[in-house]
Amino acid sequence: MGQVNYSQEIKANLEEVWAVVSDVTRLPDWTYKEGRFPYMVEGKYGSDQKEGIGTIWVGLSVDGQKATQKVTAWNPPKKLTYELQEMDNAPLKMTQINTFDLESTADGTKVTWLVNWELTGGFSLTSLLIRFTGNGAFEEMMVGSLENLARLLEEKSAVN
């Protein structure tokens, strides 16, 4: 199993950061678009439930992949975990758990993002390549996404 952990300080308060990271419809606003993974272009809820453990998130990526995620930890405004449940049209099958820990700092909020992942499909040349380079691809996506999140929230704070 691969594991990647990355932290970023954001000059916005805890509640502002939580409001964005805990809303699946906002994910396309800050997802990294230049990386090796297809990026999300639409995020929606899979039922009427919009918060709490058991909430279902559905994301559609630029290449048509559809990922269904289930919220497994919800502790506003400090911790959010969601797990990949199913991925339609994906070239490789994997398990993936994303955890966001938010911590107040003197200048804003420290966001720590942890991804645990594992390929679950059969063996192929592509799967072998992902097994060796996956952590780097996840790190690239996480760094770019958290930089986008910081930019989004800091620009909003500068306006207010």
Q: In the CATH hierarchy, what is the architecture at level 2?
A: 2-Layer Sandwich
Number of strands: 7
Uncertain segments: none
Put simply, the count of helices is 3
Features:
41% strand, 160 residues, alpha+beta, 29% helix, 3 helices, 7-stranded antiparallel sheet, single chain, Alpha-D-Glucose-1,6-Bisphosphate, Chain A, domain 4
Structural notes for this entry:
The chain has 160 residues and is α+β, with helices and mostly antiparallel strands. It has one domain: START domain (Alpha-D-Glucose-1,6-Bisphosphate, Chain A, domain 4, 2-Layer Sandwich), CATH 3.30.530. 29% of the residues lie in helices and 41% in strands. The protein has three helices and seven strands; from the N terminus they run βααββββββα. The protein has helices at 14-21, 27-30, 125-159, and strands spanning 2-10, 40-45, 56-61, 66-75, 79-88, 94-105, 108-119. It has a seven-stranded antiparallel beta sheet with strand order 1-7-6-5-4-3-2, with helices on one face. β4 (66-75) and β5 form a beta hairpin. The termini are far apart.
